[in-house]
Automatic annotation (TrEMBL):
Localization per Swiss-Prot or TrEMBL: Cytoplasm
Enzyme Commission number: 2.6.1.16
Domain SIS: 37-179, 212-354
Top EC class, one word: transferase
First and last residue of the signal peptide: none
Full protein: residues contained: 244 to 607 of 607
Role this protein plays: Catalyzes the first step in hexosamine metabolism, converting fructose-6P into glucosamine-6P using glutamine as a nitrogen source.
Quaternary context: Homodimer.
UniProt gene name: glmS
Catalytic activity: D-fructose 6-phosphate + L-glutamine = D-glucosamine 6-phosphate + L-glutamate
Natural source organism: Falsiroseomonas selenitidurans
Location (main, coarse): cytoplasm
Protein's recorded name: Glutamine--fructose-6-phosphate aminotransferase [isomerizing]
Key words of the record: Aminotransferase, Cytoplasm, Glutamine amidotransferase, Repeat, Transferase
GO molecular function, one term: glutamine-fructose-6-phosphate transaminase (isomerizing) activity
Length: 364
């Protein structure tokens, strides 16, 4: 049941700290701060190339995973939504590997991609939340997120659990490939062990996020911006808002805004910026200033240091815990989900069962 919560989604949002902790514990030893992965269908030390694929939110998690794996392990990764991968006749690398991501493990498009990849000689690893699912059975290997059953049609805790697992994979691959030394790997692993606590802190900022939601609920169009591994999280924010509130939202790479979407910006369009301190902060901040100069209403998710720089021109700033940039995508995923939840409640839409959507899409 829902316990004391109004919706399954609200309950599932509150499960973030536990689910992140449980998932990390499977792949990361908190004592030694070392990632330990079970035997995988491909050898990360030698695999020439990886293909990642999924649908919807799971695809956006895969895209973050791609950024991490390329950065930390220097393995070339392709990432495509499953419904495109299947028909684009991709040339697959000899001896290549694949990682497919799915909460249900039953999504028809992802299943079809799985079969295509296996037929093309790729060793397929599935990341699923349901151990007895079709994808787990048909893959060469499966890793489990430990999110528990997710009832809300809009994915929340399963998405962040996917991110946590993919983060562990990226560290493990980085070690296997000799691209991370032990100290670097330990630092990143330590960063992950702090994520469940930070997630709990973010859930306590509910009031602030709800106040932002009251503004967003009045809008007809909303833009979410981010760079690097925050870019797929911006897209996730837009997807969540569309699904739950039926407000038109777009997620965009912040640097791409000036190549078109900036034309949409006026004082009626909230621009939600995912802008933690890190190597890309200055670049994103200057994109936001461009939007503000055109009347755009900047609402930023950042950390304490970022807030100091953004307050001059941002209408609202939500200050998230200060973390290593590696963990920032996981943490930023939570407030965009909470925001979409509150907008939906304010608009009176069906939070757990949005119109036209099914939890598991088993048709192509
Ligand atoms: O079960 P899956 O993870 O394979 O589902 C994939 C998508 O259908 C799913 O993430 C969908 O986009 C959600 N409604 C997102 O909230």
């Amino acid at each position: 049941g829902k316990g004391n919560f109004r919706h399954f989604m609200e309950k599932e949002l509150h499960e973030h700290p536990a689910v992140l902790g449980d998932t990390l514990q499977q792949y990361l030893d908190p004592g030694s701060r070392a990632v330990s992965l079970p035997p995988l269908p491909f050898d990360p030390a030698t695999v020439p190339r990886l293909t990642m694929s999924a649908c919807g939110s799971a695809f956006l998690a895969a895209q973050v995973g791609r950024y991490w794996i390329e950065q930390l392990a220097r393995i070339p990764v392709d990432a495509d939504v499953a419904s495109e991968l299947r028909y684009r006749e991709p040339p697959l690398a000899e001896g290549g590997g694949a990682i497919l991501v799915s909460q249900s493990g039953e999504t028809a498009d992802t299943m079809a991609a799985l079969r295509l990849l296996r037929a093309g000689g790729q060793k397929v690893l599935s990341v699923v939340n349901v151990p007895e699912s079709s994808m787990a059975r048909e893959s060469d290997g499966a890793l489990l997120t430990v999110a528990g059953p997710e009832i809300g049609v809009a994915s929340t805790k399963a998405f962040t659990a996917q991110l946590a697992l993919l983060a562990c994979l990226a560290i493990g691959f980085g070690r296997a490939r000799g691209k991370l030394d032990e100290a670097q790997a330990r630092l990143l692993a330590h960063t992950l062990t702090e994520v469940p606590g930070h997630a709990a802190q973010i859930l306590e900022q509910d009031e602030e996020i709800r106040a932002m939601a009251a503004e967003v609920a009045k809008a007809r169009d909303v833009l979410f911006l981010g760079r690097g591994a925050l870019m797929p999280i911006a897209m996730e924010g837009a997807l969540k808002l569309k699904e739950l509130s039926y407000i038109h939202a777009e997620g965009y790479p912040a640097g791409e805004m000036k190549h078109g979407p900036i034309a949409l910006i006026d004082s009626a369009v909230p621009v939600i910026a995912l802008c933690p301190t890190g190597p890309l902060f200055e670049k994103t901040a200057s994109n936001l200033q461009e939007a503000a100069a055109r009347g755009g209403r900047i609402m930023a998710l950042t950390d304490a240091v970022g807030a100091r720089a953004l307050r001059g021109f941002a209408e609202r700033v939500i200050v998230l815990p200060t973390v290593h940039p590696f963990a920032a995508p996981i943490l930023h995923a939570i407030p965009v989900q909470v925001l979409a939840y509150h907008v939906a409640v304010l608009k009176g839409t069906d939070v757990d069962q949005p119109r036209n959507l099914a939890k598991s899409v088993t048709v192509e």
